[in-house]
Amino acid sequence: MKKVLIVGLGIAGMSAAISLKNIGWEPVIIERASERRRGGYFIGLFPEGIKAAQKLGSYEEIKIRTPDDSIENFEMNKKGKMKRGISFSDQPGNPQSTLRGDIEEGLWQTVDQSIKIIYSTVPIEIKQKDQVVNVKLKNILTDVVQTESYDLVIGADGLRSTVRSLVFGSHDKYMKSLNTMIVAFQMKKDLPVLINQQSITLVEKNRSVWFFGLKDTNPTVLFTYRTKDIDSQFIYPIKDVLKDKYKGMTGENFVNHALSELEKAENPLTDSVHQVIMPKWSKGNVVMLGDSAWCLTLYSGMGASAGMMGANVLGEKLSQSPEDIQTALENYESELRPFINKHQKLAFLKSQFFVPSNLFYGFLRSRIIKMKAKQKFKN
């Protein structure tokens, strides 16, 4: 039985473990954190992701939180008036609304008890000899180091992947900044002016706040803004940074409510937005998957879907070439590349929808929203 080391216990990592176990491999997952992390921020699940989750046998375990069709959504204009808007699921593909933690929980139901998971552990050296990959693993709590051998190593450890830096080189070779920041989290309670499941968006040039209403759970918040000085955004507490960035914004009472909820939030996501551009996703018997390989960004909405989809494709290609891992990895990449390239290009336009960089994109966005909202409620 071939043995695979998967680095990262996120959506892509768990999906890869399920996919490869299903074709007869023995997966081992290592995770830097001391326990499974749970993030409550909003995620869209596109048709490709639904199909991939079904193939993994996890879709029925994922809670879908798309608001009812009858729910109205709003945009706040510059005068502070609430106008009809559209929901996230009204875009092409009609993605379903869920939480990152919901998808991970669905995958976990399949992974739990059946796949070996080692916490508080990171790779510190990865070297291949013939067809064997030798990996030095370090427990970050005890500093104990041991070397294990695998037939394949999968880097599914996120945007700033340790596997990628060890095997392919430094982050700056592959990470392309979109000069934006995101802060995403789930609130403990609704906005006072909205009813259950309603959403509202506040958008101005270079900054926006999104409140995503969800079914059967509390709403989530997304702060996103543009900045050319990414490094300085991490010097001070993020709440203080947001207070400064969003000072004087129309709908400031909504902003202040969200900032008060940020203090109570569990596992908020605070990060700069980057794509990962790699000319090749594999080297020897080491392969990258998910955000580690391509990072479509939160704006694309395709991150979770692409991670599960990629894991399925990888498993399929390995099953088709069981004795030729190199061919399998090449086929995995050639099948996925067109899809990933397409959504990386779309991410720029989608970023303008989330946070327009100038008046033209702001005007274009408002016209699209107005047209879509009119069509929706006319029907």
UniProtKB/TrEMBL annotation:
Limits of the FAD-binding domain: 3-342
Q: Kindly give the SUPFAM superfamilies that the UniProt entry links to this protein.
A: FAD/NAD(P)-binding domain
Name the keywords, alphabetized: Monooxygenase, Oxidoreductase
GO MF terms here are: monooxygenase activity
Q: Has UniProt tagged this entry with the keyword Oxidoreductase? A: yes
| Gene3D superfamilies noted in UniProt | D-Amino Acid Oxidase, subunit A, domain 2, FAD/NAD(P)-binding domain
**Which InterPro entries does the record match to this protein?**
FAD-bd, FAD/NAD-bd_sf, FAD_aromatic-hydroxylase
Q: Which domain of life is it from?
A: Bacteria
Reply yes or no: does the keyword Kinase apply: no
PANTHER family with a match to the protein in the record: OXIDOREDUCTASE-RELATED, POSSIBLE OXIDOREDUCTASE
Q: What is this protein called?
A: FAD-dependent monooxygenase
Q: Which organism is it from?
A: Paenibacillus yanchengensis
